[in-house]
Amino acid sequence: MIHIGNVYRIGTKVVHGSKGYDPHTGAVSFPIYQSATFRHPGLYQSTGYDYSRLQNPTREELENTIASLENGKFGFAFSSGMAAISTILSLFSPGDHIIVSDDLYGGTFRLFDEIYKKYGIEFSYVNTSSINDVEETIKKNSKAIFVETPSNPMMKVADLRKISELVKSKGMLCIVDNTFLTPYFQRPLELGADIVIHSATKYLGGHNDTLAGLIVMNDDELAERLKLIQKSEGAVLSPFDSWLILRGIKTLGVRLEKQQQNALEIANWLQTHKNVTKVYYVGLPEHEGYPVSISQASGFGAMISFHVNDVRTVEKVLEKVQLILFAESLGGVESLITYPMVQTHAAIPEEMRQRLGVTDTLLRLSVGIEDVKDIIADLDQALE
Question: What is the pTM of this model?
Answer without folding.
Answer: 0.96
